[in-house]
Recover the amino acids of this structure.
C-alpha cells in the first residue's frame, strides 16, 4: 500500500491535518502537502479550513449544514461563516447572518469561527477579522457585512463602496442595531 492510500485510511480514522500526518509518517510537511494536493486533484479528499476530509465526509457535512442557520439561504462558500461548537457545526450564509447568529450561539461553547477574506478568499478567524458594514456592495444579505483579514483592506474597500469599518464585537452590535432600526445607519458604536 502506498503512502497516499495510507493517508486516506488515516483521514478516515481522524488524522485530519497535514501536521498530524507528517508526524505519523516522520516526513516533512511539504512531502505530505504534495500527497494531499494529488489526492485533492483526484477528487478523493477536500481541504476545508485547515482540515482534511474524505470527499464523502465533506459531502455529508454539506448536506448536514444545508442552508444558513439564520436566514435559510444556501451558503456561498466564499462568504459563509462556519461556527464550530462542541460536537456541532453551524453555518451562516454571510457575515451579516453570521454576526446576528453569534448572539444566539453565545451559550453553546463556540470553539471557533471561520470565514473568508473578501479580497483574497483565504480563510480567516471571524473573531479577529474586520468588517465593512452597510456598504453599497451587497454580496448576500442586507445591510451588508463584509469580512476582511486586515483593517487596511477594509478601510480601502469602505472608501470606495461606503460603509464603516468595525471589529467583530462592534460589528455584532451595529448589524443588530441596523436590523432593529430598519437599517437606518447609527454610527455611535465605537470602532476599534
Amino acid at each position: 500500500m502506498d503512502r497516499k492510500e495510507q493517508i486516506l485510511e488515516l483521514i478516515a480514522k481522524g488524522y485530519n491535518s497535514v501536521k498530524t500526518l507528517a508526524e505519523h509518517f516522520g516526513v516533512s510537511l511539504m512531502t505530505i502537502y504534495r500527497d494531499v494536493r494529488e489526492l485533492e486533484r483526484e477528487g478523493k479528499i477536500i481541504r476545508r479550513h485547515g482540515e482534511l476530509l474524505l470527499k464523502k465526509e465533506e459531502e455529508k457535512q454539506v448536506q448536514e449544514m444545508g442552508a444558513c442557520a439564520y436566514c435559510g439561504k444556501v451558503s456561498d462558500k466564499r462568504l459563509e461563516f462556519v461556527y464550530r461548537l462542541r460536537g456541532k457545526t453551524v453555518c451562516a450564509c454571510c457575515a451579516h447572518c453570521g454576526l446576528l447568529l453569534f448572539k444566539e450561539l453565545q451559550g453553546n461553547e463556540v470553539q471557533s469561527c471561520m470565514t473568508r477574506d473578501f479580497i483574497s478568499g483565504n480563510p480567516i478567524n471571524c473573531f479577529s477579522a474586520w468588517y465593512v458594514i452597510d456598504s453599497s456592495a451587497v454580496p448576500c444579505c442586507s445591510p451588508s457585512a463584509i469580512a476582511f483579514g486586515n483593517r487596511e483592506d477594509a478601510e480601502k474597500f469602505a472608501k470606495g463602496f461606503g460603509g464603516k469599518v468595525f471589529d467583530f464585537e462592534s460589528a455584532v452590535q451595529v448589524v443588530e442595531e441596523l436590523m432593529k432600526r430598519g437599517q437606518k445607519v447609527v454610527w455611535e458604536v465605537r470602532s476599534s
Confidence is low (pLDDT under 50) at residues 184-192. Strands lie at 45-48, 51-54, 81-85, 88-92, 110-116, 123-125, 130-133, 145-148, 164-167. The two ends are 54 Å apart (CA to CA). DSSP finds seven helices and nine strands in the chain.
